[in-house]
Design a protein that fits this description.
The complex is a heterodimer of chains A (486) and B (95). Chain A is α/β, with parallel strands linked by helices and 486 residues long. Chain A contains 15 helices and 11 strands. Helices cover 35% and strands 4% of the residues of chain B. Chain B is flat, with a radius of gyration of 22 Å. In chain B, α1 packs across α2. Classes of the chains: A alpha/beta (486), B mainly alpha (95). Chain B: Heterotrimer of A, B and C subunits.
Chain lengths: 486, 95
Amino acid sequence: MQLTDLSMLELAEKLAAGQVSSVEATRACLERIQGVDSTIRAFLRVDEKGALAAAEASDARRRAGTPASALDGVPVGLKDLFLTEGLETTAGSRILEGFVPPMDATVVRLLREAGLPLLGKLNLDEFAMGSSNESSAYFPTHNPWDVTRTPGGSSGGSAAAVAAREVYGALGTDTGGSIRQPAAFTNTVGLKPTYGRVSRYGVIAYASSLDQPGPMTRTVADAAALLQVLAKHDPLDSTSAPVKTPDYSAELEGGVRGLKLGVPREYFAEGMDPEVEAAVRGALREYERLGATLVDVSLPHTQYALATYYLIAPAEASSNLARYDGVRYGLRAKDAKGLKELYALTRERGFGAEAKRRIMLGTYALSAGYYDAYYLRAQKVRTLIREDFTRAFQQVDALVAPISPVAPFKLGEKVNDPLSMYLTDVYTLPCNLAGVPGLSVPCGFTNAGLPVGLQVLGRAFDEALLLRIARAFEREHDFFRRLAPV
Amino acid sequence: MALTLEQVRHVATLARLALTPEEEQRMATQLSAVLDAVEQLQSLDVGDVEPTSHATLADSLLREDATRPSLSPEQVLANAPAKVGTSFAVPKIIE
């Protein structure tokens, strides 16, 4: 076993016992990155100097007996959507190439304060718009389980780096499944917290009413530990919820005996890969064996979630991305004659195909004459989707379902067919529309050895229960112990 | 619903995107396909339904109206593609 194969908490234990130093662990990650990242391409930028300096400071705190947190010294990576003071942040877009933020995102600050060395910035679909990492303006990331396939998206770099043991854990963001789907595609754990649970301040905005940052790790306990660092009310984000943070590890081993787990029948629709379905059904039987009761539930508006999402998210995106105009930062078309041409040429050159598609779609849905028929109607259907969840949670404690109807697909397979790409998110989108928490936990493999994830969905602010349910499954299986063949 | 090239050009102008002719063509095809797919929402009766603009919070939260340090002009201008003194420089606005 190599040092980089440890989980975050296993490493933290060794750091606390003085058996290994943070500098050693950080160097091990940097060597691993050097060894495998030319194949995986998870990193847009490695911050060797910054990570080692943070590791040295952590070791000094450990020696002095004053660790900053339980995870002090555990190196992690960041999706390149989080602002990092003094370190280039691009959102995977040409329009922000060379942009060096003057400040940290709140969650980045929280990680620094907790003593976690930050190894660098991880690849993503441009502005988090995509499900395969192929819309990154720089290069696609490869799945460590099969490098001809996508690691999913948009937090594909984060998921791949965690699965390839280049980092011990990572931060991603989830607007329509962007933490959970790549976690499912890489045999890792990904948690999208309740909307408002984790601060969005300094996280480059895609669709503000849906975006939510969260942890991506190799074990459920690690996800709980990392969420513990991130989940804090932030006065700088007016949508950050002023709620108390529970101890996420306290009930982690509580099991599922006596719990009612809803199985939403709409999440097992036709067209699902039979091997994916078999793995998920196997996990459901496991929960029954462990003492949970499975309850058939209906979320009747599920079929409208995709359409609702692809009106609301692009509408918000078209507004958020209006700030990239070549005036204050990022790319500027220097040959423009006049201000209007400066805007149009800068944006034409700076945005990739997917960002442009969503800007166009959102602008259309918000434009005069179409607003009521598209955007407002989508917001109303969003209410119906939320109410589906509210009703379901009156009957059951949580929901268990697939993450993706398909296993990781080949790079290039769906890139020219946006609609078929959008369809891969059909089981993750409703959670964001409802604002409830969701997580992905490894639940098996296809015959070809591709990972499959199980989705657990819960009531708002019930992350602790989701983690406990995921842990109950993880404890019975060694899926998470299997290492990607890189 | 099929989007005409003319509509694509109008939306591109609103979005301040100087699309190439090939992009306009591709946009018309791809956006039409997406609009067809979202058409299904028109079949739902949403007459009395209140719209949801945000996921969990009923009211937006207000914080105390207290001053706090902000970024310095140097920090704000550090990423500027062009500047004059402590201002962002842009091409001529009135054409």
